[in-house]
Amino acid sequence: MALVAATAFFFLEIQRVAPKWKTSLTVSGLVTMVAATHYFYMRDVWVATGNTPTVFRYIDWLITVPLLMVEFYLILSAITKVPGGVFWRLIIGTMVMLIGGYLGEAGYMNTWVAFIIGMAGWAMILWEIFLGEAGKINAKSAPPSVQSAFNLMRWIVVLGWSIYPIGYFLGYLTGASPDKSMVMLNVVYNIADVVNKIAFGVIIWTAAVSESDKLQTTTK
Q1: pTM
Q2: Is the pLDDT of residue 76 over 70?
Q3: Short-list 40, 23, 15, CA closest to 190
Q4: Domain coordinates in residue numbering, the chain
Q5: Fold classified for 2-209
Q6: What value does the mean pLDDT of the chain take?
């Protein structure tokens, strides 16, 4: 329900921000809307079967996580021209991370090997937003409000997203009984999804409103 409420908020606030920020805020609303929809499916699977809804969770992540990565590209594009390579490197890193995780969780690959592949994809993303071209464009071209939002977003990718490999580790790599592992896995994943997806949107909304208000003040 928090994801549903966040969706309504982001969509309502689209009318408040300048045109160049509308796409970013729309994507934030789409992320929380897609996540909320899939959580209704995942809840039904868990209640009916007691099994981890792995397929639905990864369908959700395959839609929402690339959209979250696109947000880095969009907020930079709102203030300067950004090379397409930034977009593709973020997307490729995201897909490597998700595909590795799914192959491990679905049993198609050794869980440790899949874990390492997923971590490599995460490392690609971190390199791009901290030391790569995206990070350099933010440092050189972005105004203070956008730099602040960009910095907060990338620390969510560091700290907030670290919850996911922790969940994977607790669910598959500790040697605990399957029942206990699956409960812990789903609790950790659920907390991470709600915190990270809503927080991303709120940070982008803050930057969009700040820059839009400045623009209105300047034009007056």
Answers
A1: 0.85
A2: yes
A3: 40
A4: 2-209
A5: Rhopdopsin 7-helix transmembrane proteins (1.20.1070)
A6: 85
